[in-house]
Amino acid sequence: MYSTFFVVLVRHQTRRKVMSRYRRITEATMAQLVKEGRGQGRGQDYKPWLTVRDVPSRGLSTRDKGWTTGRVHHVLSNLELEYLYTLDWNADVTDIREQYPLQIDETLDIAKRLGIKHPFVNKYNEYAVMTTDFLVDSVFNDSPVLLARSIKTESDLLSKRTLEKIMIEQLYWKERGIDFKVVTEKQIQRNLAWNVGFIHSAKASMDTLVSPQMLWLIEKRLFTMLQQQHSSYAKVALENDQALGMEGGTSLWVIKHLIANRIWEVNMSKKIDPGYPLEVQRREGF
């Protein structure tokens, strides 16, 4: 299934230039990674092939557990994080597996057929395992579908070498009958991603901050205040905190919580900046 040696690329970024260094993964290390379950599992039990420990200067981990999976995610760029947030908001998405490893014997064969050099490490002249940024389980027309997505910037696509790697990845998934697409910043709904990132940590209930009974009292007051006032919702939230004698920030957290749980409906394609008024509607049937 796997070759004798695998490598993980680690990039070290400085202000002036980007330097690269490589970590060699021996057969023993590879066995340990497989034993750890890297690239295996589903949902909360999935473990990505690459983690922020493998690429400390590039990697980002979500501070809060994903809404869809219930686990911390490991992404390698801000653009990947933005795409992750859009997936978490999509009600049709049922599972998200990031940094998903591809079978190296197959990618080697595909590279050979395409006449393309397979990714390898210059220092050791050993082939590197390829990964797909996101493997997504979703539902379309009431049927489950699997989607493979590679996240790249528009400038990335100007590189011939990047395009060659994408060709290998694309054919890999095509031969499995799985939909593959490259997603750039032009395809990502940036305001939606920002909004989800802004409210993400507030989805779970915090009884130590607000009891269930108090939550609904605050909700009623805030909803009425937002309908009647045209001030920024940060100001409205602060006024409500002061009126109820609550710690500053409590009402703002409640607003985020209500939006995150879709109890309040807002235009998620528009940035919900706290410095501006907020138009909200209660979910139908609430």
Give the secondary structure arrangement, pairings included.
Blueprint: E1 6-13, E2 18-25, H1 27-36, E3 60-61, E4 74-75, H2 78-89, E5 93-101, H3 104-114, E6 120-121, E7 126-127, E8 131-140, E9 143-151, H4 160-174, E10 179-183, H5 190-199, H6 212-228, H7 233-244, H8 250-260, E11 264-265, E12 281-282
Parallel strand pairs: 9-10
Antiparallel strand pairs: 1-2, 3-4, 5-8, 6-7, 8-9, 11-12
Helix pairs in contact: 2-5, 3-4, 6-7, 6-8, 7-8
What features would you describe in this structure?
The structure is a single chain. With 286 residues, this protein is an alpha+beta fold. It has 2 domains: 6-188, 3-Layer(aba) Sandwich (Trna Endonuclease, Chain: A, domain 1); 203-282, Arc Repressor Mutant, subunit A (Orthogonal Bundle), CATH 1.10.10. It is built from 8 helices and 12 strands. The protein has helices at 27-36, 78-89, 104-114, 160-174, 190-199, 212-228, 233-244, 250-260; strands at 6-13, 18-25, 60-61, 74-75, 93-101, 120-121, 126-127, 131-140, 143-151, 179-183, 264-265, 281-282. Strands 5-8-9-10 form a 4-stranded mixed beta sheet, with helices on both faces. A two-stranded antiparallel sheet has the order 1-2. A two-stranded antiparallel ribbon has the order 3-4. The longest helix is centred in the last third of the chain and has 17 residues, at 212-228. The radius of gyration is 22 Å and the shape is elongated. The relative contact order is 0.10. The model is unreliable at 1-23 (pLDDT under 50).
